[in-house]
Amino acid sequence: MRINLKDAFILDRYEKEVDFRLPVAEDEELSSLASFPEEPLVQFKIRGKYGLVLCDTVIDFKYESFCCRCLTPVSGALHIENQRRFITDPLKEDEDTILIDPNFNFFPDEEAKNQIIMEFPDRFLCAEDCKGLCPICGCNRNEGVCECEEDS
Ligand SMILES: [Zn+2]
Ligand SMILES: [Zn+2]
Fold first, then answer.
1. What spacing in Å lies between the alpha carbon of 131 and ligand 1's midpoint?
2. Is the pLDDT of residue 93 over 70?
3. Pairing relationship of beta strands 73-87 and 97-99 according to DSSP bridges
């Protein structure tokens, strides 16, 4: 998917809305983060005015993963919402900008993917105080106390 934003930079007024579902199944980077019961819903609202081009982003998705301590399945939803400014100069890039190429080409699926990767939690816990698995017998310590724990 490619959108040329040259008009947004040169016209006095420019508005464009892009809505789509991001195909995650064939993307290795995204599928390695978690599994997605449905494709993330992405919305970009682009507004240009006198050379200032802004993008309102809203991304919603559900994920399924595992607790990093006890390996219990964990599921949840993530909502990403921000406003950023399109730029073509890599020297001006910061967290509030979206860098597009010198020919004003914007790739919405790549931007959505980058934002999901950046906002995605590094790891999941089933509960803040998850006790994890016993390193000796492998039992789930949230569900009971094992013999080996009493010895230590
Ligand atoms: Zn856990
Ligand atoms: Zn044990």
1. 7
2. yes
3. parallel
